Amino acid sequence: MGVLGEIGRRARVAATWFTQPLLPDDLLGTLNPLWSSREPHARVVGLRRETADTTTLLLRTGPGRPRHRPGQFVGVGTRLDGVWHWRTYSVTSCPGDPLLAVTVTALPGGTVSGALAHGTPVGTLLRIGPPAGEFVLPEPVPEKLLFLTAGSGITPVMGMLRDLAATRPEALSGAVLVHCDRTPSDLVFGPELRDLAATTGLTLVERHTAVRGRLTPDNLTDDVPDWAARQAWACGPAAMIDAFTEHWARAGDPTALHVELFTPPVPVATDATGGRVSFTTSGIETDAAPGTPLMVAGEAAGALLPNGCRMGICHTCVGRLRSGAVRDLRTGDLHDTPGEPVRTCVSGAAGDVEIEL
Amino acid sequence: MATQTFGPSMTPSAAAHLTEEQVEALGAELDAIRAEVVGSLGEADARYIHRVIAVQRGLEVGGRGALIFSLFPPAWVAGTAALSVAKILDNMEIGHNVLHGQWDWMRDPKIHSTTWEWDHASPAASWKKSHNYEHHTFTNIRGKDRDLGYSIMRITPEQEWKPADLFQPLVNLGLSMIFEWGIAIYDVEFEKVKNGTKPWPQAKGELMGLWRKARRQLAKDYVLFPLLSGPGFLSTVAANATANVVRNMWSHAVIFCGHFPDGVETFEEERLDGETKGQWYVRQMLGSANLSGGKLFHLMTGNLSHQIEHHLFPDVPSNRYAEIAPKVQEICKRYGLPYTTGSLPRQYGKVLRKITRLAFPGGGPKQPAPAPARLPVPAGRKPSAAVRLAS
Fold it and tell me: Which residues are A87's β-sheet partners?
């Protein structure tokens, strides 16, 4: 950081004295949400219908968007009925592209993925998180690449393929992609992948599972005889990833397989089940009986928790949910969104749960 | 200021005729109203609070911008007016309600009770404790709800008279002008330090926290923005002071009308023991009073003009109180309970009359009703409040 950076920093500190208790960033965000660097927003400026249930959202972000590595995902926040919901989606644009592209597949019964894939018109304002994820290619790029994808598992791999095609197409020569979906029309990015195969020497194996069945370790050799000699990147449903992880551990080199799991929300029981409660700030763990408020369980274990009315009205006791699910003991509603504020005085554990208090 | 002492109740409760079953049925009806409103919260509500915040920020930036030219009288008037309204909106419809958690359901980290800070001397954290917890949980319990007279005034005849109370009409006027500072200092609970129930180091820590926040507020209003005005320095100081006093007197009037006018009850501490949800609702209704007015008036009071509805449902978004009010009023009528409401001048007049009357000894009803027997209360089991309520 040079002299200019130091001047900029001091100017921001000085501006804070004029805007407090707000930050200058809050006022910028009120004028144009895209100008906020503390709560980065993005505006949908284009849509690409990839298949019947998959849509690519083209997003204009603010000036300070952090550069992603191909294969990484970003958090996408959308306001549905006034409530912010967050999900993560793979970035399918290249790091230098002016617009950020995320590709969303509507899951059966998924309200958020469905709304993003089908109910997000151009002009919609979304929130956007920093890029994250370890499912990326190393430097230098290995010579013999293998990609195994199923359904929307193609999305992080598409980010890698587009980047390679744009910056060093020679790396794709000799690479193999096995991409599975039910029928040719379900196959996400089908036409673009066929073009890519024709121009770069990438071997594309389209596996239409309605005809040929699922890709398994047993039939992998049919499509890719030299799989064991390749560095592999696999992304798809948990069952497929589990099967390949086991296969590489048994018959190949486990370090040559890199995987990305889709983790659908784990279903939880519909009654207040109780469970192990961890308060992450104080480090205290305890068991909460069914129907026992988290606050009562924590206090019994000696945790110093913020508390007030102990009847769900004053919000003194709110802590953020890090993982797991809680049930509102008054209404029976289940809350399982990570980061959601939870009132510990009226919430019981629905399975094991971590609260940031 | 000394710890307050209270004599026995001087009036029978307006809810004395209700049976235990009726109180619980009333509670169930109010629960149903709450569930209906909470279930219907959605995009329109989210747009409402975003719009109010945008208007408030626009008024504040516009007002402070105009005051850069505060030597020019029209700019002084327009800027001061805009800044006064901005401060009132910030404190009342936005700050007070966001800090209650009314907008937590949106899961918006920028509009959330755990992250919000306001243009007020009192830091949000200490406000949440003294207001959300103590005042809203112990509403109008004599000796527990410190908002009854803010520990410096005699606001119910049950409070014992002291000679210093003679000055309370003047104290009230002074308090109204510096109300934000009164609240901030009051949150430190000096009367508890004095009687030994609060350790001094804790109070000192809170005072330091208050000072860290307050010095920035003072610097902004009385040094930094005046400096931007150059030769208009003093003129801008005067404008900002005026906006602060306008905000203080307005919020003081609205808040005092919420709990102190005639017809509002106060309660004994024993009532808390074993108090049911239904009884809690009854106490909130009898302990609060509304103000009547138009839409703009409700907005400018932060919807504390719907004080009764706010006390029944403190974490329901304030823009919904207006639609709840007729239902609550109908319930009160059906159960034979008072629903105190009136215009701001009328209600504030009653408050001032009461403050003046209670500056002198006495002030209870002419024919004191036979006070309920005050048993010496041991630490263990106490007679249930329900019995007293039903008797």
Answer: A76
